[in-house]
Automatic annotation (TrEMBL):
Residues 85-204, 393-496 form the Sialate O-acetylesterase domain. This is Sialate O-acetylesterase. Keywords: Hydrolase. InterPro entries: Galactose-bd-like_sf, Glyco_hydro_2_N, SASA, SGNH_hydro_sf, SIAE. Residues 230-348 form the Glycosyl hydrolases family 2 sugar binding domain. It comes from the Bacteria. Belongs to the glycosyl hydrolase 2 family. Signal peptide: none annotated. The keyword Electron transport does not apply. Gene3D superfamilies: Galactose-binding domain-like, SGNH hydrolase.
């Protein structure tokens, strides 16, 4: 084993940052000479009393591949190095979401594209509450090709592809996003000290005995819940998935539909659904795909008694590939075992429920037979310690501080919508701290404003997503940041909207302006200020000199209020470089909101370059 030890990111296939600030660093024996040979240059340094060493490379121009030799008491060689622009891709699941999950939209494009000059580093996802650690525990680089592409961050993939095709400069993506993480997971303990709501959580997480006991108790409870379900579900015991089961006494349920406000309201346990499907002879020999939308919370699917697919949690789309000759001519039986554990079970509406053959489809929406297999108590989920404050800052972000980068792309916020009011402050803390860690100045920090989404569990209006978007909009006051608006390309019923290509493109436009200094339109209209004019309000925008535009009719989604703070739907009209807003119900207007819903619909306010306006409020309640 070599005496020279490097972070896992300093490894074969890496992309290092071009320019003047790239370091190579590591550990060795104390006080020994370290030599580096790279691109015909020789660098020397000595390890310190603790074995730490680092070398600042000379000016690096984009290119590669190259090899690097590092020598101490022994030597190692890092192979296949590219020099280009490196971006940290961080946040939660919408940044983490791999191409595989959206492949159906982009299959031809992805599977026909290979580019060794785009590479992604897959960082380990172990959290740490003991404090900032020096190096990443593990990780590896992958070059982009038709096989590895499925694992790449979808947002990162399209972002990198746009930039490479424009500049032909190698792109390195450092994938650090972890699904479900709130912003505080990515901030240090020191920076969170002034926000009292995290103190107890941080203290508990540092207590290894507390964490161990909690995890053991959760595991025992969860295992007992599922064991009880499997033992007592009469549907499993009596094989309700078999083809010739007599289900004539079962009741009917319309799919898609949630259990709420039906006889299944708040049912937890196993509910079985069956449907007869008639398949013509000419389709039997074709393979097919079964689409069952999204199911809350888990499912097992059978066709004619054969298990054809299962999903263990609610978010992935249920798209099950079916083999040839699975169906028979005439009557076939599809059976779905739904496991509901959060009291909000059901089938998400406005999703596809069908069987797709080569050129034909069979619709599955409508009446299904159902019967409860086992009814139990609500499942109380485990404590997700990976979501706790400081965990991933310590284990991922701090250890990356010596690896030079161009900037950050960030897609996060969904997990903070339940507590949005301090997000603006937390985001400001995060950007400041990350920039201080890297010591590269105010590098571009580009982020995605949350898409439109409505939780199926929520009744009434909560505005958590709207308030979070407003906090994100206000983050633009931080120097050298940029926000990609996505409120027009989300899916009301999908936490992970599929159109990641446009998200990546919009982020790339900001990068083209912020990093590459091109004078382009990179943003839609961003609220700037209001001026009152009798019974109307004029709204002015920072919109990068691109003409304001209403598509598909009059402007939608504007609300206005008077001194009583009661909002009414407003009329809105574009006049030159501002929008005029009014309502006959408000004589003395005070504030205006735009797209102030968790899942606003019919977005039609853009600029002439096709970029949407950001939602906003003129209130100052934060």
């Amino acid at each position: 084993m070599s005496d020279i030890r490097l972070s896992s990111i300093l490894s074969d296939g890496m992309v290092i940052q071009r320019g003047d600030k790239t370091k190579i660093y590591g550990k060795a024996k104390e006080n020994i000479k370290i030599e580096i040979e790279f691109l015909g240059e020789n660098y020397e340094t000595y390890s310190d009393d603790e074995g730490n060493w680092s070398v600042l490379l000379g000016h690096l121009d984009a290119g590669g591949p190259y090899n690097m030799k590092i020598s101490g008491n022994d030597e190692l060689i890092i192979k296949n190095i590219l020099i280009g622009d490196v971006w940290v891709c961080s946040g939660q699941s919408n940044m983490e979401l791999p191409i595989e999950r959206v492949l159906e939209l982009y299959e031809d494009e992805v599977l026909e594209y290979s580019n060794d000059n785009i590479r992604q580093f897959f960082a380990s996802k172990n959290y740490n509450f003991d404090g900032p650690q020096e190096n990443l525990e593990s990780g590896f680089w992958k070059a982009l090709n038709e096989k590895t592409a499925l694992d790449f961050s979808a947002v990162g993939y399209f972002f990198a592809k746009e930039l490479y095709e424009r500049y032909k400069v190698p792109i390195g993506l450092i994938a650090t996003a972890v699904g479900g993480t709130p912003i505080e997971s990515w901030i240090s303990e020191e920076s969170l000290k002034n926000l009292n709501r995290f103190d107890e959580l941080i203290l508990n997480c540092k207590n290894k005995e507390y964490v161990r006991d909690k995890q053991k108790a959760d595991e025992k409870r969860i295992n007992e819940w599922y064991k009880n379900l499997e033992l007592k579900d009469v549907g499993l015991i009596n094989k309700w998935y078999i083809e010739d089961l007599d289900d004539s006494s079962w009741e009917e349920f319309v799919i898609p539909g949630m259990f709420r406000d039906t006889v299944l309201d708040k049912v937890n346990g196993a509910v079985w659904f069956r449907k007869e499907v008639f398949i013509p002879k000419h389709l039997i020999e074709f393979s097919s795909k079964l689409y069952l939308g999204s199911i809350v919370d888990a499912d097992q699917v059978y066709i004619n008694g054969e298990l054809v697919g299962r999903t263990e949690y609610r978010y992935p789309p249920r798209n099950y590939l079916l083999r040839k000759n699975l169906f028979k001519e005439g009557k076939n039986i599809i059976t779905i075992r739904v496991i509901s554990n959060t009291s909000i079970g059901g089938f998400i509406k406005n999703k596809p429920y069908k069987i797709v053959f080569d050129n034909e489809e069979i619709e599955l929406s409508g009446g299904w037979k159902y019967k409860i297999g086992f009814k139990t108590n609500r499942f109380y989920d485990r404590t997700y310690f990976e979501y706790m404050p400081t965990g991933f800052y310590n284990s991922i972000i701090y250890p990356l501080r010596n690896y030079s980068i161009s900037g950050v792309i960030w897609y996060q916020g969904e997990s903070n919508t339940g507590y949005p009011d301090d997000y603006e402050k937390l985001f400001e803390i995060l950007v400041k701290e990350w920039r201080e860690n890297w010591s590269l100045g105010d590098f571009p920090f580009l982020y995605v404003q949350l898409a439109n989404y409505s939780e199926p569990s929520e009744v009434g209006k909560h505005y958590g997503w709207a308030r979070l978007r407003e906090a994100q909009r206000r983050g633009l006051k931080i120097n050298n940041t940029g926000m990609a608006v996505s409120v027009d390309i989300g899916e009301k019923n999908e936490l992970h909207p599929f159109n990641k290509k446009e998200v990546g493109r919009r982020l790339s436009l900001i990068a083209i302006n912020k990093l590459y200094n091109e004078d382009i339109v990179f943003s839609g209209p961003i609220y700037k200020e209001i001026k009152k004019d009798k019974n109307k309000i004029k709204i002015y925008f920072d919109n990068n000199k691109s003409e304001l535009l209403s598509i598909k009719g009059n402007l939608n989604n504007f609300d206005i209020c008077g001194e009583d703070d009661i909002y009414y739907k407003a009329s809105a009209k574009i006049i030159d470089n501002y929008v005029e807003v009014w309502s006959r119900k408000v004589e003395n207007p005070k504030n205006v909101r735009y797209a102030w819903e968790d899942a606003p619909e019919d977005i039609n306010f853009y600029n002439k370059d096709g970029l949407p306006a950001s939602p906003f409020t003129t209130e100052s309640f934060f």
